[in-house]
Amino acid sequence: YDFFRPENRSGRKTVVVSASPAFLIDEIAKRMKVDYCIASTFGKRYTMVGDICRKEEKVVRLAKQLPNIVVKDVYSDSVKSDKYIFNLGERCFLATNGVLTEIDKPSLD
């Protein structure tokens, strides 16, 4: 997505919060000049350390790493999986097949 290229971020800080393993996401985030990367952690021999970074856990880890964060925009490809983090944003965008669609905050029910 063009909006996510470093030159198109209008000086905003960026945070990637992913259920994917950090050892996969960290390098991508570094290349994309992401300010913060929060992902599932694995130890030696690729064993999971703690909970997988998904659903409510994304919000918990974000608050722990950046306790005073104000979330402007949230982008995700899954409303079902990311409804908790969507509810932190002032604006929410569903990213599917290369298209961004602004959506209302999903219900937490």
In short:
This protein is α/β, with parallel strands linked by helices and 109 residues long. Helix content is 26%, strand content 28%. The chain is built from three helices and six strands; from the N terminus they run E-H-E-E-H-E-H-E-E.
Plain-language structure description:
The chain is α/β, with parallel strands linked by helices. About 25% of the residues lie in helices and about 30% in strands. The chain has helices spanning about 20-30, 55-65, 80-85; strands spanning about 15-20, 35-40, 50, 75, 90-95, 100-105. It has a three-stranded mixed beta sheet with strand order 1-2-3. Strands 4-5-6 form a three-stranded mixed beta sheet, covered by helices on one side. The chain starts with 14 loop residues before the first strand and ends in a 6-residue tail after the last strand.
Largest sheet: 3 strands, mixed
- Give the C-alpha Rg: 14 Å
Could you state the order of secondary-structure elements as H and E?
A: EHEEHEHEE
Q: Which regions are unreliable across 5 or more consecutive residues at pLDDT < 50?
A: none
**How many DSSP E strands?**
6
What spatial form do the alpha-carbon principal axes imply?
A: globular
Which band does the percent of strand residues land in?
25-35%
Strand order of the largest sheet: 1-2-3
How many separate helices?
Answer: 3
Cα distance, first to last residue?
A: 30 Å
Helix residue percentage = 25-40%
Overall mean confidence score, pLDDT: 93
What structural class results from the helix and strand content?
alpha/beta
